[in-house]
Amino acid sequence: MLTVRGLNKAYGNTQVVRDLDLTVRRGECFGLLGPNGAGKTTTLRLLLGLIEPDSGAIELAGIAVPQQAREARMKVGVVPQMDNLDPDFSVRENLVAYGRYFGMTKSAILARVPQLLAFAGLSSKADASITHLSGGMKRRLTLARALVHDPDILFLDEPTTGLDPQARHLIWQGLRRLIAEGKTIVLTTHFMDEAERLTDRLAILDHGRIVVEGAPRALVESHIEPAVVEIFGEGLAEWTQRHAATLCQRFESVGETLFCYTGNADTVLGALKHDTRLRYLHRPSNLEDVFLKLTGRDLRD
Predict the structure, then answer these.
(1) Which among 104, 81, 85, 87 has a CA at the least distance from the CA of 145?
(2) How many CB atoms lie within 10 A of CB 254?
(3) 253: which residues sit within 8 A by CB, 6+ positions away?
(4) What is the per-residue pLDDT across 185-208, written as a single tens digit (0 to 9) for each?
(5) For residue 251, what are the contacts with CB-CB under 8 A and spacing of at least 6?
(6) Full-model pTM
(7) 225-284 architecture in CATH?
(8) Please, which of 73, 99, 155, 179 could form a disulfide with 104 given CB 3.0 to 4.6 Å?
(9) Cα(8)–Cα(19) distance, rounded to whole angstroms?
(10) Coil, strand or helix at 270
């Protein structure tokens, strides 16, 4: 559904995308992760033909981009990072207006509206004003709107940012249904648990390059020790000096927390057991650990 080879894009002296290669298979949910400024937004704009690359080739839904970007976008549904619903229209009218952009007849759109509203959990809100919807409702409507023309591939740019846990889980349920139905999805997100739950494969992008690519669980198993003990509290500096190098396979001090990565947490927990000054959290390693190891913990602006 998507093939990218040797993609490059620079703005002035800043290389934003560097020699990017990507393949997304039909029916796959593919994640594109990276810290702020890594090049994700520019990459999405390139893939959709909204900007032209300096070099490289893109084929989206079997169509060359940007040469035939308009034709390609007819096969694509997009959920942008920020909702851009029309506040002057009702929920139903937003779906109808969007479908008309894709050359659909009004009757064809109206035939799909009940299904789309049911998918979004908005069947009772068809005539409601956009201004009367909650943030979660607006996000679900934006997702339903992206499906109005039954696209071959969906681009979701941080679809659950700013939502409460209940709304996030509703969005996830909808996305899992789409994946089960065979839709192809390209997803960007800052939520590592979202990427672990939804994606078949993902790529972590940093400074315009892909630093790693693969299935989420395979990346965790290949890049991070199995267990993590997060240690904090009074006396941490003393404990770190005495034990970290010998008990941790790898460790990082971040602010007032020591992250101890190990294949056997029992020895670490044993050394902590009788130190009442310290608190700790023992957990399995996850995708966020991989992300931070490969892109660093420094704040990106």
Answers:
(1) 85
(2) 11
(3) 240, 259
(4) 999 999 999 999 999 999 999 999
(5) 240, 244, 245, 258, 259, 260, 261
(6) 0.92
(7) 2-Layer Sandwich (3.30)
(8) 99
(9) 5
(10) helix
Do 58 and 47 meet the contact criterion of CB atoms below 8 Å apart?
yes
| Sequence spans of domains, the chain | 1-75+154-161+182-223, 80-151, 225-284
Backbone angles phi, psi at 73, to 5 degrees: -65, -20
Residues 33 and 206: their CA atoms lie apart, in Å, by 9
pLDDT in tens, 255-277: 999 999 999 999 999 999 888 89
Strands (E), the chain: 2-11, 14-24, 29-33, 55-60, 63-65, 76-79, 153-157, 184-188, 201-206, 209-214, 227-233, 250-254, 257-262, 278-284
Q: Which CATH number fits domain 1-75+154-161+182-223: 1.10.10.10, 3.40.50.300, 3.30.450.40, 2.30.30.230?
A: 3.40.50.300
Which residue type, as a one-letter code, is found at position 221? E
pLDDT of residue 158: 92
In DSSP terms, 30 is beta-bridged to: 186, 201
Residue 301's pLDDT band (boundaries 50, 70, 90)? Answer: low
Given a contact cutoff of 8 angstroms between Cβ atoms, the answer to whether 249 and 265 are in contact is: no
Q: pLDDT, tens digit, for every residue of 147-172? A: 999 999 999 999 998 888 998 998 99
What is the distance between the terminal CA atoms of the chain, rounded to a whole angstrom? 33
Q: Which of 60, 28, 21 is nearest to 185 (CA)?
A: 28
Sole residue written with tokens 């050394």: 271
